[in-house]
Amino acid sequence: xxxxxxxxxxxxxxxxxxxxxxxxxxxxxxxxxxxxxxxxxxxxxxxxxxxxxxxxxxxxxxxxxxxxxxxxxxxxxxxxxxxxxxxxxxxxxxxxxxxxxxxxxxxxxxxx
Amino acid sequence: xxxxxxxxxxxxxxxxxxxxxxxxxxxxxxxxxxxxxxxxxxxxxxxxxxxxxxxxxxxxxxxxxxxxxxxxxxxxxxxxxxxxxxxxxxxxxxxxxxxxxxxxxxxxxxxxxxxx
Lengths: 112, 116
Hints:
The complex is a heterodimer of chains A (about 110) and B (about 120).
Chain A: E1 4-5, E2 11-14, E3 19-25, E4 32-38, E5 45-50, E6 54-58, E7 61-66, E8 71-76, E9 85-92, E10 100-102, E11 106-111
Parallel strand pairs in A: 2-11
Antiparallel strand pairs in A: 1-3, 3-8, 4-5, 4-9, 6-7, 7-8, 9-10, 9-11
Chain B: E1 5-7, E2 10-13, E3 19-24, E4 31-38, E5 42-50, E6 53-57, E7 64-68, E8 74-78, E9 87-94, E10 106-107, E11 111-115
């Protein structure tokens, strides 16, 4: 079982719709969770972090965490064509030091 | 504030050669992590350094090594290159050293290595 799993997509949504990206992880003791966005040919950039169960909102982005189900999601409201990118879920496998494990990413396509 | 700088951006090597990649973190960041990104495997953790000490290492063979200098700059080296080492090598810096709330990484643009 992979440590962090995501559906590779592509996930296609029309402009203005809500895009829902999902991620599951295997390590129950993981405590910090992140969403990175990677445009084609570019490096990943952090867009959301979440540490506690529940929802965390930042503009059009909402991260959701359910530690009991080992599930993290990212909702993008009012999706824009500029949101088209690969979204990487990352989990800090807390070995005491910094080790971020990434999923393989979900490609999001937002059509005008 | 300058971002993470990686050099060189592109390089081509042949099998059996070695390569050294350099990374300058954001000023004030003392943690540097290295990742390998390939289309099939995604982002794979190589190692993480903090205060010149390797704190964590991924599942890569011993041909992959790294170090960090006192000014937090880091280098990684790959010896005896294989075709499968062709990848984008990403360096990321972080303000925090570790613990449960770390993982906020700032990535450089990467070094794209092609092995022929």
